[in-house]
Each structure stands twice: as structure tokens, then as C-alpha cells.
User: What shape does this take?
Amino acid sequence: MNPDAPLLSIRDLVIEIRGRRLVDVAELSVDRGQIVGLVGESGAGKSLLLSSILGLLPADATVRGSIIFDGVELRGVSERLLREVRGRRIAVVLQAARAALTPTLRAGTWIERALVLHRVPAAERRSRIAHALDAVRLDPALLRRYPHQLSGGEAQRVAIALAVALHAELLLADEATSALDVTVQAEVAELFRELRLTEGTSILIVSHDLALVAGLADRIDIIADGSIVERGGPSVLSKPQHRVTREMVAANPTLERVQGVAP
Amino acid sequence: MRRILVRRGLQSLLVALGVGLLAFLITRLLPGDAAATWAGPRASAEELARVRLQLGLDRPLPEQAFRYITDLVSGNWGISIHTRQPVLSDVAGRFMTSLELVTIALLIAALIGIPLGVLAARWKGRPPDWFAGLTSSVLASVPIFWLGLLLQLLIATELKWLPVAGRWDRTLNEVAVAATRTHMVLVDALFAGNGALFVSGLSHLVMPALVIAAYPIGLFARLTRAGLLETMGEEHVRMARATGYTERAIIWRFALRPSMGPVLSALALVFGFALGNTFLVENLFNFQGLGSYAVDSIAALDAPAIAGTTIFVALAYLAANLVVDLARPVMDPRLRDAGR
Amino acid sequence: MAAPGRALRYVAVRPGLAIGLSIVAILAMGAILAPLLAPFPGDAGNDTNLLATLQPPGGVHPLGTDLAGRDVWSRILFGVRISVGVSVVIIVAALAVGVPVGLFAGAAGGALDALLMRIVDIFLAFPSLLLALAIAATLGPSMEHAAIAIVVSWWPWYARLMRGEAAAIRGRAYVEAARLLGIAPWRVTLRHILPNAIGPVIVQSSLDLGGVILTFAALSFLGLGAQDPTPEWGLMVEQGRTLTSTQPWVALFPGAAIMVAALAFTLLGEGLRERLDPKGVARP
Assistant: This one.
């Protein structure tokens, strides 16, 4: 296990649904402790790509290619093995924060159950949760609430807290900030940055929000029609080469502000 | 929450009042002279007159109605003509017997119907789903009295697995009567510590309960399937999958409870259905429940008893609706904070 | 031009609906052709044959004979008209009462709405079967009285359903617009609210047909509905009730007929519901 090797390495990934080729990515990797932004318009295939990493595609989808996580090939592996990875090593944060939590469970119970699922010993669970709450800056009292009693930002933090409590190495954020208020978005983005530092979590964030990703990611991959069309550091947005990138940048007035900060 | 409770309570009270009036009307509309029925066929003219006065039949109708309602509220539900017992105690006791039957039936229905619905949802579009769907439709179409006869014929007469009728084995008659406190054989048997009576009571309850449970099984299955399918498409299920739970755990531990809303609502409806159909079943299986009491009362043109039964059942149905409405927020936390 | 083809395809992939339709078609044929199909048409009326009582199924009596020597098959055939016919009439009558009441309450709103709905609530406080039983008992045993009893116990459901739909539609923009334009309220109600609100009610009633068939049979079984010699299925089951262990055919076949008819309409109703209003549920 080479510590310098990418944590996640996707190669020649092709996803087809009912004959239509929706994703065709030659290469995409995330290093340890790296934040990668996958940016594209709706329907570009971003969410499908994320779903495929954990083997959560719809039944009528066909997948080809390789998805290597921490040196282990995930594609084609049994459900049982995938379930070990899900949540525990690769965690997910969804767009609809409150809707992602089970409505009939208190937030704390929801987290607890997942820890039990992944066989975290009872003695450890409490300390892990305490630490996780600290890391995401979530008031422990909120754990007694039901999802509908939490704000969008709070619910999102619950999901991230679970990822931290499980010591997940890779966080897949599927439009995790898109449904939040602007100020809350900034808070969550800040949280991601901190997690990278304190927990060493790698993050693959999928979004259509250029400004957010520009201020957050180490590397930005632009995806259009299922393929990566351009890739680079945040400067890729100030000096876009590909037509698609140029169009997106042009349509995004807030970027100018951010570009001044980016290297 | 409290405000809703109060409002519902008042509404129910109003409805209960209306029910009482309706029942009163029914008693006055029944064919036959109430006084004559009470006094008997050989009563003299004097006796008839006396009885008529006693029953207050000479007063104007609105006054009779008012007296009737106030009597009801104070617990005086009259005396049954055919049993010569106070109607309220008659009805209450018989009701408990029917309630026992209905409760067992609903329990069976939930224990069979809900898993059937889960099965149908899990295998949507495949044979188990077809089977569950067809079963639901068939169960909704079976005439209860016919099903009862059929089961009696097959299970009791032919296979001899279960007793044909009655509430307990005839040999336990004395014991059962002596133990009667709540008029529920299972509860009474437990109080008396009599295992034989309990088992006998249970074996006599199975068939009639199954007959009543038929339609609810289908209904619960259908509602569970629909609710579950809807829930399975929701984001939190996707999240649960991404967290690493098995499909089975997701269905039973995460998706089922949020899907139970419609089933719970249907519970009140089904309770009413079961209560309304007990008399068909009691008829067949020789149960001394509220249903057979109602039938006997009708045959005897026993106005007070008929009215009493009608009111009691309506009140029970109202209570059931109220209970279900209160239970829904317990089942689904999203309903707890009104207007959040 | 495309509609019949589409309809056919719609039915073809839904075996439930297909089965329901087929049985309904058979029932319709049975109802219309009963006098021709029945080997002993008189048995459905006043004929008795005391020389052939309680014959087991077979030979000239495909389903056997009953206590009065009457051919069970013939009586079942003629019974289609009664069971299904009366049930349809009952539903139509219940709609005829319930829909206007509900429409009125929903469209008017306010105190009138509240009053009407409280009255409806009183009726709904009774399990429908029990109410029908009480009314049928009050009126005296006969088919007509049983039908009336069921109508009285059934219409509140339609009233409430209609009221809900009407109230929802009344709040819609186009109704507001119509009212602002100065169109008379009654016209708004009839032209705009009624057509849009009545859909789910009709679907529900189709689902209820099976339930009404069962209820009517139940009342007859208890002796409160059809009387002898009417070949009503519920009554026939009752007549064979004490004979189930020795001559089961007398009660079993008519009961099966009830089930088949109820099933057909339930399947039909469910097939329609799927197309028109997914939230309806067959009521007991």
C-alpha cells in the first residue's frame, strides 16, 4: 500500500443506461488529503459518477472500468464487501440535508445506529461522537432532535459528523451545499477545509457552483456530457481553455471576486 | 396538540349527541307499540296504560328526546326488553366480548398483512407482487358469512383442527362462567389462572378472527406496499444504502415506520368494519357478543337495546378514530409539531 | 382512432384488470341471457320440485338442487340481475344523494359547510354495515328496504369525498377568476367545480361496487333483504347454511358467485383507479 498512491483512482469508467452512454471518464483521481471539485452542468454525469464509486447505480445501468480505492478494486466486487466500504471508509453527504436523515429517528440515534452497524465498540462510540460533534461544531443537544426540527446546515453537519465518527477517509459531497443558504454554504465549505486539515479527509465535491468550488478545491475537473473536458488548479477558472469551461465562467459573475484570491 | 385534541373532542361530543338523537329516532320508528312489547301479549289495557306512562310515551316527542339524552348521559340506558337487564351493562359486557374478537382479528391482520405488503414492495412487478395483489383483491371480495361457513366446513368439520363454534369447550362451561369478569375469555382466564380455559378460548377465537381479518389483511398489504414503495424512493433511503445497511435492514428498520401512516389511518376504518361485521361472525360461531345481542334485539323489537347498541358502537367507533388520530404523531415525529 | 388500441394495450399488461373485465362481461351476458341459459328458469321464480330436493351436482342439475328442489345453477344465473343490478342502483342512488350534498357544502363553505358535514359525520359515526342493518330492521325485511338502508349508510362517504374535492377546487385560481368575472355562483359551482371534483368520487364508487354487492348479500343472509323465492345469492347461502356438512353445494355455490362478482368489480375498480386516481381504496 503505497502512501503516495492516490486514495481514489478511477480509470476508463464508462456508465451506460439503456444504451445511452452517460459517463465516459478516462481518468480521475483523488490523493490523500486532497479536495477535488467535479464541476459541470446538470445532466453532465457528475452524480452518476459519484454513485458508481459506491456501487449505488440503478439496476439498469451498466458499468465498465476500474475504481480503485486504497489499492483495492471496488468495481465488480460483492455487495457484502461494498457495504463494508460504504459509510465506514467512503462517506456520502447529499444535497437534501434534512431529507437524507431518517425522519422517524432522532439525529443521535441515526448516528449511533450507523456506528453499531460498522461494529464500533460501545465504549468507543461515545468518544467518537463527542469528537465528531466538536469537529463539525454541532451542539450535542441537537442530537435529540428529529430531522425536521433541524435547519439545513445543522442536518448537513449531522451527516458530516457521521463521516467523521466513522473515520471515513474519503467524503463524497453530492451538491452538498446547493440547497443551503449562502452563509451556511460558506460555513460548510469552511468545515470541509478544516476536516482536510484535522482529520486528513479527502473530499470529492460535486457541484455546479463554480465560486464555491474555486475557493475550496485543490484541483478542479470540469465535466461535460460525461467526460472530463478540462482539469487544473483553481487557476483553470481564470484561464479557461475549453469552451465549456469558458461558458461556465462567463455565466458566473461572482467568480471574479474569488479569482483575485486564487493563486 | 392540545388545541387539536380539544377541538376534536368537542366535535366528537357533538357527533355523539347526534348519534344519540338518531338512535332515539330509530327507537320511536320501530314497528310495534313499545308499551305492548314491554308489557307482553297478555297485558290488560290497564297494564298497558301504566307501562306507557312509565316509559314516558305519553309526553311530547321533543320532551321524550330530551329525557332520553339526559338519561343516557347519566348512565340510564333503559332496561332491555328481551333480557330484562339494564341495557348499559348488557351492551358493555357484550361489547367486551366482541372487542376481544376484533382485537385478535386486527392483530392477525397486521401480522400477516404488513409483511405481505413488504413482500410485494420488495419484489415489485415480480410474482410475489402479483400474488400479494391478487390475494388482497380476493380477500376484499370474499363474503364474510360464506368464508365463515367454508372455514367451519373445512377446518372444523372435515379436518377437525379447530372447534366449530362457541367461545370455549363445553366441558369448561362452569369454569368459564364463574371466571367471567371482563367478558373477555382470554383476560378472564388469565385472571383466574386457568390455562385450559385460556387455550380453549384461544382455539375458539382463531377461526372467527381469521374470517374478520380477511379483508383487513388485504387492505394492510396494499397500503403497506404503497407506502413502502413511496418511502423507498426517498433520499434518506439512498443515504442509508450509502451508509452500508443491507436492503433488508433498510426496509424493516428505516423505511417501514415512516410508511405506516396510511395503515394507521386505516386502522380506525378497519375497526369499524370489524365491529360492524362481528354480528355476521357471531351468528355463525355462536359467540355471545354485541353482534348477536343486536340481532336478538332486532328480532324482539327491543327498542332500548337496539338504541343502546347503536349508540355504544358509534361511540366506540368515534373513540377508535380519536385514538388513531392521536397515535399518528406518535408513529411519525414529523406530525408532532403542528405548523413547524 | 388510437384510443381503442391504447386501451387494449393498457388492459393487456394488467392481468387483474383483464380478469375483472372478462368476468364482468360474463356476468353481463349471464344477466341478459339468463332466461335462455338457465335449464330451469322457473326455479328462479315460484317453481319448486319436491321430488328432486337436495340433489348433488351432476347430470341435469350441474350445481345440484336446494331444499325446494330448485336448480341451483338456474337460480344463480338469475341472481346476477338481482345482485349486480340492485348494487348498481344503490351506488347510483348514493351518488345522487351524496354528490349534491357534498358539492353544496364544499362550494358554499362556512357555516353551511360545517353544518352539513356534522350531519355527515353523524352518519359516518356508525360502521356502515351496522347502520344498514338497523335501518333495514326498522323498515322491515324486503329487497327494496335493504337497498334503501344501504343507500342511507353509503351516501355520507360520497358527500364527504365530494365536499373535500369541491372545497379544494373552490380555492383554485380559475374559480376565483370566474367569480370575479361576475358569473353567478350556481353556475360557477355547476360548470367549474362539479366537473373537476367529481373524478375521484366516480373512481371510488367503482371500487365500492364490490363492497355493495357484499353488503346487500349480507343483509339478505340475515333475512333483512331479499325474501324467498327471490334467487338472491346471500339468501341462498342462508338457506343452505344448516346443510353445509351434508349438502354443501346449496350454500357454497351461491357464495362463490358472490365472491366472483365482487372480485370482478373490485379488480375493475382497481384497474380504473390506477389510471385515474391512485389514492382511492376499496371500502368494506
Remarks:
- The mean pLDDT of chain B is 84.
